[in-house]
From TrEMBL:
It is a multi-pass membrane protein. InterPro entries: AAA+_ATPase, ABC1_TM_dom, ABC1_TM_sf, ABC_transporter-like_ATP-bd, ABC_transporter-like_CS, P-loop_NTPase, Type_1_exporter. The chain crosses the membrane at residues 39-63, 83-102, 158-180, 186-205, 273-290, 296-315. Its main location: membrane. Residues 42-331 form the ABC transmembrane type-1 domain. Residues 604-623 are annotated as: Disordered. This is ATP-binding cassette, subfamily B.
């Protein structure tokens, strides 16, 4: 049953406590995924069956060879015995080769089925993550998602080869092998199989213990990857504050906890392997002791005793694998439950069944008594907000931190859904139109100037990969990037570093502006996206954007007044409500909060720069 969007840590806890019925449902779902490759499954299972039967023939042939050798010893001139021995030797060789060939087929095709299952789950998992809402990602650490999509997915992928194929192999070897032993000699058969219950019990117990420690190890590795990811993402901050000893201490502590548990797992494995080996050799000693007496008494031949010992050697590994089989089922149930729990989540933001594409005509954006509360918050970020923006109009949003400016920017493209009220474009509720058409019409230039590790050209054309070079050049010129790119030896083919760290903050922000201008949206939102750009460059960018402002609604979220003083209307927000609105001049005349902020923030030389009377550049001017 699908659930609402839930963070992975809650999914993991729910999976770990799920009952056996839920586990069996998960195993069936994984099996059904494996059956999507029916001919590969058929080849793997048939090859397993043939390889197991051929393996069971080897003890019989070796026992026959021993008896034939004894006859040769007693009658060296016997031609029939020599021919029979050669025939048996050739049969052993042929059976061994055949077993090796079919075992190869078994391993190859069972692994192929597993990799196909992993491929399908990996795509489904990645696609689901792309569609989960901002609200989900706000509560989730990316390291947890990576761990879930790698370690858990790998545990599910291996089920066909370590679970389904192994259960067929062990059923044939233990079932038919045990039957052959008991039908040959009941007493020797029971002695030969006496180690089986103990080994099966110890193997199952140890594997279940290993499974429990593996789950804990997975959690500790998740913490380790989280520490490493945060360190790599913030490496410049670490260097700036000389925090290497602190970071090394954090990493060493997390790594030590994982290492201690790994040692515990090794200890469990070694102790149980030793106990199982001892029981096997004890059973083999009993078979030799009793069997030798039967050989002396003439009840069985030496070849029969050899066959018993060879059967035991063959059965030793399958019996030990019973624990691995139990572990495979348990691991698949747990890991699969986590994976499917995420895949089955109901999307918080999705298209309605009858959603139609957004049709933009007049380009009127309207907030109608909108309220919004973040999932992790108990208080409303926005309450009863109403305003209208028309095509060709530029709206500025300003206010203290936490007043709801960025929230408004994220509600328009439906990164979040409103708690109450509605947002419309040309009278169409944005919840009633398709997400694809809405996000084509509404584009946000984010505060976080994220760039991909690829060329400048690909970063700029990210929203339109088939754009012509001239379009990319025009967008770059509008974002005041053309001169900078012209100075680079590789030009637009220059590859930026991870997250664009090889560029300055202002260059990264201009890159994101250029990327946005490629799309020609109906509603263009700048979410404090020029904070790292100097005032002169910002003025030139603003002039370029204003030249095309008649084609769209433009919304500017900013902390610097000189970023939005040119707006047709400025909304001053506080605690999610509009407390003042009007043009720059009208708000100054009101002598309210906006005017107070203006007196606090602006200096005479900055006022001149913001109004365009000079090209002098300056910073924010914050006291």
């Amino acid at each position: 049953m699908a659930m609402a969007e839930t963070p992975p840590d809650e999914i993991m806890r729910a999976a770990d406590t799920a009952g056996w019925k839920a586990g069996m449902r998960t195993i069936w779902r994984v099996t059904a995924l494996s059956l999507r490759s029916p001919w590969m499954v058929a080849i793997a299972l048939i090859s397993t069956l043939i390889a197991a039967v051929l393996q069971l023939l080897i003890p019989v042939l070796l026992g026959r060879a021993v008896d034939q050798t004894q006859r040769l010893i007693t009658d060296p001139a016997g031609q029939d015995a020599t021919a029979a021995l050669w025939t048996t030797a050739l049969l052993v060789l042929a059976v061994s080769v055949g077993r090796g060939v079919f075992t190869t087929f078994q391993n190859y095709y069972s692994e192929s089925v597993g990799h196909r299952v992993g491929y399908a789950l990996r795509l489904a998992y990645y696609e689901k993550i792309q569609r989960l809402s901002f609200g989900f990602h706000d509560r989730v650490h990316s390291g947890d998602l990576i761990t879930l999509g790698m370690l858990d997915l790998e545990g599910v992928r291996m089920f066909f080869s370590t679970g389904l194929v192994r259960i067929v192999l062990l059923s044939i070897l233990i079932g038919i092998g045990g039957y052959m032993l008991l039908t040959t000699d009941v007493i020797l058969g029971l002695l030969a199989l006496s180690f089986v219950p103990f080994v099966a019990w110890r193997s199952s117990v140890s594997q279940l213990k290993l499974r429990g420690t593996w789950l804990e190890l997975q959690n500790r590795l998740s913490v380790l990857s989280r520490v490493m990811e945060e360190n790599l993402a913030g490496i410049r901050v670490v260097r700036a504050f000389a925090a290497r000893p602190h970071e090394m201490g954090k990493f060493d502590a997390a790594s030590t906890r994982a290492l201690d548990l790994a040692h515990e797992r090794v200890d469990i494995r070694v102790r149980n392997t030793s106990a199982m080996t001892l029981s096997f050799f004890a059973a083999m000693g009993l078979v030799l002791w009793v069997g030798s007496g039967k050989v002396v008494a003439g009840e069985i031949t030496v070849g029969t005793l050899t066959a018993f010992l060879t059967f035991m050697t063959i059965l030793q590994m399958p019996v030990r694998q019973l624990g691995m089989l139990v572990n495979s089922f348990a691991r698949t149930a747990t890991c699969g439950e986590r994976i499917f729990a995420l895949l089955d989540l109901d999307l918080a933001i999705t298209d309605k069944p009858d959603a139609a594409p957004l049709a933009v005509t007049d380009g009127v954006l309207r907030f109608e008594d909108v309220s919004f509360t973040y999932p992790t918050s108990r208080t409303s970020t926005i309450g009863g907000l109403s305003f209208t923006a028309r095509m060709g109009e530029t709206i500025g949003l300003i206010g203290p931190p936490g007043s709801g400016k960025s929230t408004i920017a994220h509600l328009i493209p439906r990164f979040y859904d409103v708690t109450a009220g509605r947002i419309t474009i040309d009278g169409q509720d944005i919840r009633d139109v398709t997400l694809a058409s809405l996000r084509h019409a509404v584009v946000v230039v984010q505060q976080d100037a994220f760039l991909f590790t690829t060329s400048l050209e690909n970063n700029i054309a990210y929203g339109d990969p088939w754009a012509q070079p001239q379009q990319i050049a025009d967008a770059s010129a509008s974002a005041q990037l053309a001169q900078f790119i012209a100075t680079l030896p590789a030009g637009y083919e220059t590859v930026v570093g991870e997250r664009g760290t090889s560029l300055s903050g202002g260059q990264r922000q201009r890159m994101t502006i250029a990327r946005t201008l490629m799309l020609r949206p109906s509603v263009l939102i700048f979410d404090d996206s020029t904070a790292a750009v100097d005032a002169g460059t910002e003025q030139r960018i603003r002039a370029t954007i204003q030249a095309r402002a008649a084609e769209r609604v433009t919304i500017i979220v900013a902390h610097r007044l000189n970023s939005l003083m040119h707006a047709d209307r400025i909304l001053f927000l506080e605690e999610g409500r509009i407390i003042e609105q009007g043009s720059h001049e009208e708000l100054l005349a009101q002598n309210g909060r906006y005017a107070a902020l203006h007196r606090l923030q602006m200096r005479p030389d900055e006022i001149k720069t913001a109004s365009g009377t000079t090209d002098k550049t300056s910073g924010e001017g914050q006291p």
